[in-house]
Amino acid sequence: MFFGGALQAVAAMLWWLVDLATRYGMPAHAIRWPVAPNAAHAYLLIYGLFPFFMFGFLLTTFPRWMAGREIPARRYVPAFVLMLLGAVFFYLGLASNKMLLAVGVILTLCGWAIAWHALLRVLLDTSHRDKRHPTIALITLAAGWCGVASYLVWLLSGQAMWLNFALQAGIWLFLLPEFVTVGHRMIPFFTSSALPQYRITSADWPWWVILAGSVSHGLLQLAGASSWLWLCDAPLAAGALYLSYAWNLRRSLAVPMLAVLHIGFAWLSIAALLFTAQSLILLLSHGEHSLFGLAPLHALTIGCFSTLLIGMATRVTLGHTGLPINIRRPMWLLFASLQATVLLRILADMLPVQWSLWLYLAAATSWLACFLPWVIIYLPAYLRPRADGRSG
């Protein structure tokens, strides 16, 4: 699954860079895709990239969370093959017609369902006393599956409400709850193993506040009530800020591998504060002004999700390939490139339009400057035996 995710981290943004460059006349005329470019871009990032890494992590860690048996290859290999084929057919569809796009989405739905069922079997077959995190993770993955299904209905019907549901569900019912749930379970654990004299502190109330805020945000967006998002985004920001404090964000900066995870999580509170401010501006201006555009969304998706992704994927890759768990200087440069991507994309929505066009291109290029070297470094590790001689 990490192999597929690594390929998608490059392929999805390469396609987006081609679209941006041609759309703005460099070096050719805009390409006519079967669907709106923004709709394809959203699908590729929400449902075409992150789920590979999420399933790769959860299919490995679910049995360990609940002291269950390892998931056999016959349950996860078909899921991987179908999801990878789904991505391939989606790109083929972008180059030709909607029907191939639909085939790609259907294949993804089938692979997703097989992987989800494998995780469900672990949940049901074990008697561990604490199944909160696995249960929430499964629920959010199910919500993500519904988002993919909604995207398929949009492709076949053309009704915009299905696309809107797919996008809102993908962010607020799937990705944010999933990242927060995994982070709430794993960041304190990673921190305790890296920082001396650190006592695991993982209060539950901020986790539930963030989950409730995320779901409420998605429902309000679907209802078209953007002016009232501050009611859920402000508590969400408070919960995220508290967890960053409780997890020792400041001390974590001394350990590079750990710092990436904590900085990624800190972007959640920044994004939530931007959403809160934007919503209050809409409320006070009676819906006439939206100062930040898509800046809060990209602070969340690139700043939080993508930083957590590269931090978690790097640590898990090193741990499960038998390599030393540390970040060398080149990896810090890649991490810095990703932070530059966030800032460039945020500025693109906050500066005058004549700057925005170039900043879009710069942000996409900066993303590739981060993930392309990362893929070159780690992709071969997924094809080799473990470096320490253990099985895997």
Structure in a nutshell:
This protein has 392 residues and is mainly α. 77% of the residues lie in helices and 0% in strands. The protein folds into two domains: 1-158, no CATH class; 185-381, no CATH class.
How far the N terminus sits from the C terminus, by CA atoms, comes to: 14 Å
Largest β-sheet summary: none
User: How many separate domains make up the residues?
Assistant: 2
Structural class: mainly alpha
- What percentage of residues falls in helices of 4 or more residues? over 70%
- Our count of helices gives 14
Order of helices and strands: HHHHHHHHHHHHHH
Low-confidence stretches: none
Rounded Rg: 20 Å
| Mean pLDDT level | 91
Q: Per the principal axes of the C-alpha atoms, what is the gross shape? A: globular
Strand % is under 5%
State the total count of DSSP E strands.
0
